[in-house]
Amino acid sequence: MFITADGRKFDVYKDSVHDNLCMVAAEDKDYFVADPKLGFEGETVTSDGKTWTLAPLSHANAEKMRALYPWTAPSRVLDRDKTMGVGDRLGIATDGHLRVFKKYTEITPILSQQSIRELNLTNRTFADVIDSASFAVFRCGYTTGWGADGDHVKTAKEVAYALESGCTMITLDCSEQIDNTIEGLSKAEVFAKYKQNKELEDIYMNKSFDVGEGITISFDEELYKRTVLIYSEAIKHAIDIFFNLIMKNGKQVADFEVSIDETMTPTLPAQHFFVANELTRKGVRVSTVAPRFCGEFQKGIDYIGDLKQFAAEMKIHAAISRHFGYKISIHSGSDKFSIFPSAGRETKGRFHLKTAGTNWLEAMKLVAMKDPQLYREVHAYALTAFKAATAYYHVTTQLSRIPSLDTLKDSELPDLFKHNDSRQLIHITYGLILNEKNADGSYKFKDRLYKLWRKYREEYAELLYKHIGRHASEILMK
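The structure corresponding to this sequence follows.
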């Protein structure tokens, strides 16, 4: 307990005690307690006759903390075999995440993982997201390294913003450069649209490639031409971003992931090989590639598709990744429990798994457990906001299958999070829920939600420890 001369009391986070600096908790927020010589910005207080700085968790103080303790800053970690992105949209989930990674030490976390869309929907910045994770790393005494991902950034401007903010990993979303119309064309239409490229034809057309492990990748004329038409602009975009932004003064400044998963149809192994080989030929160094796998990876629910087919195709995709020396990245990995064993097995324990929205779902389950009336208000609003939210996400939710709140007792509300339709209802409406305002301009739900999450932060951390811990356990096949 830290008690100031004027009687204010703060609980000390025991894992945060380092030299003349620690973090303490008030009812509504956390603070640093620092020796004034350390230079933190804040209020001067006395305790037991000694002077201290009671410092807010501001960006300036985050920078000071990271300078003093480099392990509180993100770093490039994708060269480690097992990595897992656990995007924290709310800025309150990292304590729970770190409980997972302190247990499953084989996995290194990407604690900051946000897209521009998520930042806009939550009114946050990359700097805020990184600061929140840094504070939690210090608070929990996690010293073994973590990363920060500018996730699904699409343009040079977005990549530059992520890098300037301190992201140590860039996930380049090439979806706007991938031509999804090509898959629907006939063979004759593909041949008519294709423009001769002798260099590529000599390399790929009617050629086969041994990627090891008894796997051969082959291109007939149609597959070659179709692949060129679909992916050439995406490859050019990735090359431009890499050499203009990821490389600076001859040095690579961030881990680089190329995402080709935001497509209408699965990425064929030959198409994956073509993208990887072209990037390699042009000198692009990728840490991870995210193909579009077979089946459906919808938000917040388990995998939908043929598990045997997934395992068979993952085996080939993973072999291609090993051939080129990078890791497979599995996007929308939240709650995809049925594919984790095969993903862990076929990647031979070398993978990057991305989760995000499931943390929000656990936060809302906590609301249902602790304040049923507030949950009922949020749920009712989500039903009205659902249609607008589908502009951002592909889901197969059927609202008619969600039980009416009028039929449920308070004790039954948490069980809604066991069902796909109600999970997706709450999952995709998060931005609208957090931004909805009353007539006077105050937030309708946000402030009450954060107050509850603060009050029950220990319970939230435990929910995440169990739920994200299940992700870690099952992909490690433990």
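DSSP finds 17 helices and 18 strands in the chain.
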